[in-house]
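Example record

Each entry pairs one chain with its bound ligand, NAP.
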Amino acid sequence: MKVGFIGLGIMGKPMARNLLKAGYQLVVYNRTQSKMDELVREGAEAAQNPRSLGEKSDVVITMLPDSPDVKEVIEGVDGVFEGAEKGSLLIDMSTISPIVSRELSQKARDRGLRMLDAPVSGGEPGAEQGTLSIMVGGSVQDYEKAYPLFEVLGKTITHVGEAGAGQVVKACNQIVVASIIGGVSEALVLGAKAGVSPDLIIDTLSGGLAGNKIMEVRRNNFLEHDFKPGFKLELHHKDLGIALAAGRKYGVSLPLTSISDQLQGALIAKGKGEKDHTAMLTLIEEMAQYEITVGERKGQDQSLSGI
Ligand code: NAP
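Structure tokens for the complex follow.
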């Protein structure tokens, strides 16, 4: 099986590398061509555009930022649709709108192609270690064909329904992640300003009901103000837009998600869109006029007497 991979960013490059390491013949394409060099040195073939990648591949995987990017690469000029042979399987692993995902899947079927939506969770470490959680929408037959590839890329692989269902579950995932990051940020700033070292807060919460994976995986981001992405805030904001649009379509109020969306929007307006999404901490700090510091118990007495 010859696999084409389009979009070699934070997630795409390590995912493509894992397929190469697993022995798949790999063709790659990225808009900024230099990002293909490393994988070409490791044995991949570079394509000139998505059309020529489609011509050379049995399966095409896309890992792009947003719905317009996926539409452009798949159905645009020199896109995958122009090159892919009938029967080829397209797997979009980007996080995009479920509505766009369903439309593209229908257009693929109309051309004799097959398509799955298979967004992921698990971030850069999950992409590097091949331990992503993959939520898949599409036909069972196509899911089974793609399964060996998913096994290379991820650990928790779930077929969640027909076309677009993977994107619906991913929107649910992003709602939860945003709420947790907001909650952890508030807890750390409150706890630290009230005099407790933030590392102790994380350690203590981790042993109880409030323990969660984000606090574990992103511990240093919070404690050391290390906001190198990771997952860019502007991409998470895009995902909350998808969730809110779905809420509107299905008549579901998402009040917590609306707050996360507005706070993320404020951070983007401050020029922090390219930072990791844990940079939410800095906004909560700014509103409290207090920056958390490990080990220091600044203002402890004063803060505690105020409670
Ligand atoms: P990223 O680092 O911004 O990478 C996106 C890649 O797509 C870049 O290499 C970019 O090329 C390429 N690209 C963008 N538009 C293109 C176009 N029109 N034609 C061809 N190539 C194009 O993003 P990422 O963090 O890897 O995220 C990719 C997707 O995975 C997003 O949908 C995101 O929401 C989702 N996701 C991310 C994470 C995470 O932790 N990062 C976790 C789960 C899911 P250039 O080099 O030219 O910009």
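Residues 168-288 form a domain with the N-(1-d-carboxylethyl)-l-norvaline Dehydrogenase; domain 2 fold (CATH 1.10.1040.10).
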